[in-house]
Structure prediction request, 400 residues.
Amino acid sequence: MFFGTKKTVNLLTIVYDPGYKNTAVRKSRTTHIDGNKGELSYLGHSISHLFQNHDYEEVAHLLIWKQFPTAAQKQQFRKNVAREMVPSDSVVRIIQDFDPSTEAYLMIAAGLCAWAASKPECIPVHAGDGLYLGNSEATDAAIYRSIAALMTVTAIVSCCKEKTPFVADVDPTVSPIDNMLRMMKRVDAHGNVDQKTSTTVNKLCILFADHEMTNSTAAFLHAASSLSDPISSSASAILASQGPLHAGAIDLAFRRFAQIRDARGGVKKHLEDAKAGRCRVMGVGHRVYRTVDPRITHLKQLLEQFAVEIAGNPLLEVAMEIEHAVQADEYFTSRNLGINVDLYGSFVYAALGLHSSIFTPMAIIARSAGIYSYWRESMHEVPCLWRPRQVYTGHGSVAK
Prediction:
């Protein structure tokens, strides 16, 4: 298959860049990060401004459609997502067939695949066409469908983990997040979502809505570069996110704090082991930031709102001790290794009463806004299959 203008390619020119540390794969005006100054902005709006003045729906609309929604557009966004939030029986069955102890990300990936399978007409190969390339209407419909699938599947998994029945309780007048929380049973006696819970999840999602070309975002776009459908590509992002070097660090940090609490020597011993190369300190250091992660301040503000719920939490005390020790240790300060959102992110989710296995999927739900914004951009560009090169290190040529 050939698109665009034919160009001669010099096959001898290969850039060797392990981990793509210095390689940019696309252009976008969506998110800007200044790692040296500790700045993060979406479409020119600082993360602080967005956190203080907007909800997640508005930020998602800004990222995907490059503008804040009007009141009418916001209500239409809710209707469009709600319309797609009722899963087929096959999706529910596949997720419920897993043992409840199964890792959540595997259940979610399977659920997304089942969701895609339930709508074969939305899969390009099945339809015999590119479907979404250059088609704004089809692309936007797929984005609503993908947001709905990701949130609903996560709600089903949450119910499985907590051994509660799943009910597709969807209200087209409320936000997708509130509908997800309703399906997760985060409601009062009257079936209404607690306002504090809703606001907190909205604010958390704003902080995680996009972070430029992260590993999971790149995994999605890599899969989608073959012109695959966005729900199938979302499964790629979910699976990539779970590694301890990416979003899985949120969950791993929470588990590591328990190990540190129970271990002899505690935080001091853990940091000494890290400096000796015997382990990693979760929640410290960042691939991009060389100063304070700008999201940390706002994450701490959310924690303060749950002072009663987290009071005396021994794991939080471990996290705070790590922060204080890192800030006072020349080994970390001289290397610009500050704390990141993984250090405290899990405690807000825990204060909300969410199952620990759902912490990382919640971050991916937030990140979907950024992911789908880049996918939408790519559907209006000349398609380019992501196919990196490899440097051969074997001996000699193939035997004749």
Residues 151 and 180 are 6 Å apart (CA to CA). Residues 248-351 form a domain with the Cytochrome p450-Terp; domain 2 fold (CATH 1.10.230.10). DSSP finds 19 helices and three strands in the chain.
